[in-house]
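Hi P.,

Sorry for the delay on this. The queue was packed all week, but I finally got your sequence through. Input first:
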Amino acid sequence: MNTVSHLFIPHSQLSLFDTENFSEIQFHQDATFVYKQGGISIGVYVNFSPKRQRTVNFRVEKPYAVSVQAPIQATNNEIEAMLRARFEWLQSSWKKVASRTYRSKVTDFDYENTISFLGIDYILTVVERDEKIIPNDKAVTAIKGKRLVVSVKSGLTKEVRVRRIKQSLKEWLATKAAKILAKRTKDFAAKMNLYFSKVTIGDQKSRWGSCSPHIRSIRYNLRVAMLPISLLDYIVVHELAHLRQANHSKAFWAEVEKILPDYQRRRKWLRFEGKELEL
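Then the structure:
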């Protein structure tokens, strides 16, 4: 079978977020404004201080975003200029935040775990319920506010409980991943003037995705949807480029660069975040 498989996972941990539209602007829909530099969209969340504050303070709490405490007279243009001068610091800070966020590992579910999806953190909460509420003895996963709630039948042994919770999480994630990745693949295929036959979702242990050029199909790891949208997009464009170049030649990377001029930065970031991918 002539399959090009290349985006291997060097291992990482990730997060959960439910949305209908996945452009980077919409990804930062609550931001004061979105600032772009180096091909990256940055959500800027500004809190204008009514006090006699004279300096502008920056704080990074999640990837691709920055919180700003600024004097009330400060303008967006002034804040953008400061961000431009601090871009290397922003990148370094994002990596530190990512290393804290993605290294949490779901184990026995006896405690609350932080899981992420598209780079947004949710608290995993397991709730035991009466067996009549849980259909077919399966655990049920749903987003509730800032929590990812998994409902499981009470009275199970620890081994069965953990197995059903993990299965429910994977099924939930695979459903969300299928929707997100189908849309992003369709959008980028149009930009690249490429045709693909289908997108499928799998539970691969060592690959982010694979492409079969002869049947023009793409298969993604369900965990891809856990990554921040910029890294998800890199994987999508990478796989689509193999429909035109079934190798990793200069011509292949040129195809990727046409769509993502900063692909090298995203590629390095993916390697950083892909240290231990478990669920």
